[in-house]
Amino acid sequence: MPALWLSLLALHFFVAAVGARSCIQVPSSNDQFCITANQLNATAVRIVYTAPPTIGWVAFGPGSSMSSADVVIAWPNNDGSVTVSRRLVSGYSVPRHMPGTISIVAAQTKVMNVNGTQKMVATFDRTYAQLSGLPASLAFQGVDQKQSYIYAMNPTEHPSSSNPSSTISKHPSFARQALSGLTLLSSSGASADSDIGGGGANTMLLVAHGWLMALAWGVFAPSAVIVARYFKPKLGVWWFRIHYILFTLAVLFTFIALGLIYVYTESSGGEQFSVSDPLKGTHVVLGMLLICAAPLQAILGIIIDKLFDPKRSEIPIRDKVHWWVGRSALLLGFAVVVPIGLALYSSYFDSSASSLGKISGVVYGLWALLVVIGAGACEYVFGQQHHSETKYQSVPAPSFNENSKKMLPKYSGF
Hints:
Blueprint: E1 9-11, E2 21-25, E3 32-39, E4 44-51, E5 57-65, E6 68-76, E7 82-89, E8 96-97, E9 103-104, E10 110-114, E11 117-127, E12 146-147, E13 149-154, E14 182-183, E15 194-195, H1 203-230, H2 232-235, H3 238-267, H4 278-307, H5 317-348, H6 351-381, H7 402-407
Parallel strand pairs: 2-15
Antiparallel strand pairs: 1-13, 2-3, 3-4, 4-11, 5-6, 5-13, 6-7, 7-8, 9-11, 10-11, 12-14
Helix pairs in contact: 1-3, 1-5, 1-6, 3-4, 4-5, 5-6
């Protein structure tokens, strides 16, 4: 079972109603997952879930993120029955079943006709009391008390059996909205429905993060390296200007992408910089290494330009460090971080988003192949180029003269 099975969104919204129904759009369908809550007595609340009978599973409960939540999960079975299971969510592992902690209303927990439409219905009572070993924040706070809640669903994949402790498949679609604070029960007595949407954290932030990183390390960074390594004699003073602009864009896009994924993770109730899941953890760790390497590479370039000596007879160590930091960062971003990000996007979301991720992966792969072929052709035809007024020159670097200093920028590049 993959470590990452469920990623739940923290919801902050206000529902001023006893028995109000709050509904969440099921991704890629016209159906909704609805939650109704009524105060049963001074110590307990009755909650009713309604969802399409084909739903994989639904979950809802107190909590602010997937690292700490107390949810009740429900799913329909092939025989028309519905399983209800209370689970403790404590990270990216399978949530622990907590038997005997809710009271299921069996007569109202099944696939049944609701207002002329077949629905999965799950009805259960849970107390306000804090369970032993759980933080107070995960207990229902009662009437007129605001609280953070989380929800999630899998639109299509059912658990393997009706056993309440069955393994739950990860959900392929995030609930993607951050709203303002929930009062599950109110003394006002109002009864208006509340649509809490099927969006959630804005996935365009995630898409923009991916495209910015793909442009930074799939287009700008390799182009900067190719210009600096192979085209100094052809471009004259412009090689440095183009190299500088391209890598500056790569660094800028990288940090904008970091900001976007931070905002997205925060708004979706996820854990920042989590490494619990192996694939996501690899992406996070290598991505942070890349983010550290990018400004270091830029600073090295500025220093090298300032210290350039046109009379030098050999290439200084600082230049070689700049080359290898750049090459390592390029390899890391171009061949590892961006492809892993595309794989993560394809695996986490519903069919339409997954298809977008797969198509983007194919496009990126074809582009990467063209870049590798182009770089290989340049290496074969030109080799690594250094400053020269009259012809291409490959490693080792020639001596420099005052004329080349006047003609070309000081910076030696890759």
